[in-house]
Design a protein that fits this description.
The protein has 409 residues and is α+β, with helices and mostly antiparallel strands. It has 3 domains: 93 residues, Orthogonal Bundle (Butyryl-Coa Dehydrogenase, subunit A, domain 1); 111 residues, Beta Barrel (Butyryl-CoA Dehydrogenase, subunit A, domain 2), CATH 2.40.110.10; 127 residues, Butyryl-CoA Dehydrogenase, subunit A, domain 3 (Up-down Bundle). Helix content is 42%, strand content 13%. The strands form 2 sheets. It has a 4-stranded mixed beta sheet. The protein has a 4-stranded antiparallel beta sheet with strand order 2-3-7-6, with no helix packed on it. α8 packs antiparallel against α9. The longest helix has 29 residues. The radius of gyration is 22 Å and the shape is globular. It starts with 7 loop residues before the first helix and ends in a 22-residue tail after the last helix. The structure holds flavin-adenine dinucleotide (FAD). One of its GO terms (cellular component) is plasma membrane. This is Acyl-CoA dehydrogenase. Keywords: FAD, Flavoprotein, Oxidoreductase. One of its GO terms (molecular function) is flavin adenine dinucleotide binding.
């Protein structure tokens, strides 16, 4: 029996009232979370959404979600812009890790973890990239070895956003060295607090310590920690990367309360030009126009790709198009903002008439948008091979057992 879904307009009206009555106004944007307190606050807000009946809008009902459509999610998100929301739980917890669990988790895993995630009790992170490089993901060397009915994990992961505040990480490890690289991997759900896991924070040029490196020394994992099938971790990784591209590119239905793509904030350039008295400058007006035009194109592109993938007119890999565009657009927006702000971008002090607080750090961080979620070079390869159907690029290690592949030490 199918039950009628609540019409989007009614859902939106109900959300508007609930948000107004329950959530405080949005605080000023403070950049990436850098303290445990910010994560605790996000968990608390997620709990409020859950108890209010607005968590996991597109997650299946049987695992604690609402089972509604992307249109319901978009409507809720638009209503929520003005309120304090647990936006740091969107990526990677909800839109990447939990989404992968929905696709590949066992019934037990889904029942155990998904409702807890939607209640804000569990924060998930991705443990994929390694110190030797993140682009050649299938060439990773963190290993999990069988020991009776358990696994022993050794190795290191890096650039894991927010791992210091997380409960579990989805960790891709090598479980078979005698087959080509894509065929010997397994995805595990690793408790960050397990014995043998060491988490170190990394300080970036912006001052943020959001990134972490993890070291695994004989970490014991049960068979129940395997996501998907043993040695078939590339399928799990592909699913996870699909969700990552969707999240970064702006087509994920699991993101709530934030503009669903990198660089999604509205461009500050108009405010800067107004506050600094440059609105009549013809060159500044051109910059404002260029920034605005790119935002409009981005929104249209996201809409078009989302609909085309859902309708089966484009392959899921088309998420790489929006991922690439979002990165290019983020660079452009940041560069134009610095151009218009001039020296104020570097010298902001609290109370300055022109609010340029974030511009300098955004500028320093902008290279990250070409790397996060897989680099833009890799996105171009994905688009050429898997969207346009061009020949695959040469790989010296294709079909070679991994233990015979030459590697640097
Ligand atoms: C904001 C942010 C958040 C992140 N969060 C996480 C996270 O939570 N978990 C996680 O596991 N990782 C995370 N990462 C890491 C990210 O996935 C990697 O940075 C990315 O995959 C690239 O890997 P790398 O930095 O090791 O660069 P490398 O793989 O060493 O590549 C270096 C350069 O070479 C280029 N290159 C490499 N191979 C090719 C090729 N075949 N063709 C053309 N060019 C190539 C790359 O494009 C890049 O420009 C995050 C990164 C950022 C910036």
């Amino acid at each position: 029996m199918t039950t009628e879904l609540e019409p989007v307009a009614e859902f939106r009206a109900r959300a508007r009232v609930w948000l107004r009555d329950n959530l405080p106004p949005a605080p000023p944007d403070q950049g990436p979370p850098d303290s445990k307190e910010e994560w605790d606050r996000a968990r608390e807000l997620q709990r409020m959404l859950h108890d209010g009946g607005f968590a996991g809008i597109c997650f299946p009902e049987e695992y604690g979600g609402l089972g509604l459509t992307p249109a319901h999610q978009q409507a809720f998100t638009k209503e929520s812009y003005a309120y304090e929301m647990p936006v740091i739980l969107n990526v990677p917890t909800l839109s990447i890790c939990a989404a992968t669990l929905v696709d590949l988790g066992t019934e037990e895993q889904k029942r155990e973890y998904l409702p807890a995630v939607l209640r804000g009790d569990i924060v998930l992170v991705q443990l994929l990239s390694e110190p030797r490089g993140g682009s050649d993901l299938a060439g990773l060397t963190t290993r999990a070895e069988r020991d009776g009915d358990r696994w022993i994990l050794n190795g290191s992961k890096i650039w894991s956003s927010g791992a210091y505040a997380a409960d579990y990480g989805l960790c891709l490890a090598r479980t078979n060295w005698e087959v080509p690289k894509h065929r010997g991997l397994t995805m595990f759900l690793v408790p960050i607090g397990a014995a043998g896991v060491t988490v170190q924070r990394i300080k970036q040029v912006t001052g943020s310590t959001e990134f972490c490196q993890e070291f695994f020394d004989d970490v014991v994992l049960a068979d129940e920690a395997v996501i998907g099938q043993v040695d078939n971790g590339w399928e799990a990784a592909s699913r996870l990367l699909y969700h990552e591209r969707s999240a970064i590119g702006g087509t994920s239905p699991y993101i709530s309360g934030a503009r669903p793509h990198i660089g999604g904030e509205e461009s500050p350039i108009l405010d800067i030009a107004r506050d600094s008295g440059q609105l009549d400058d013809i060159r500044v007006r051109e910059d404002i126009g260029e920034a605005r035009a790119m935002q409009v194109v981005r929104d249209q592109l996201i809409d078009h790709i989302t609909r085309s993938v859902l309708a089966g007119e484009l392959p899921p890999a088309a998420g790489s198009i929006t991922r690439l565009f979002s990165a290019e657009n983020s660079w452009l927006q940041t560069d134009l903002a610095v151009k218009v702000a001039g020296a104020a971008a570097a010298t902001h002090a609290p109370g300055d008439p022109v609010d340029t607080a974030r511009i300098g750090t955004d500028f320093l961080f902008r290279a990250a948008w070409s790397l996060a979620g897989g680099s833009t070079e890799i996105a171009r390869t994905v688009i050429s091979e898997r969207v346009l159907g061009m020949p695959r690029e040469h790989a010296a290690d294709r079909d070679v057992p991994f233990n015979e592949v030459k590697r640097g030490r």
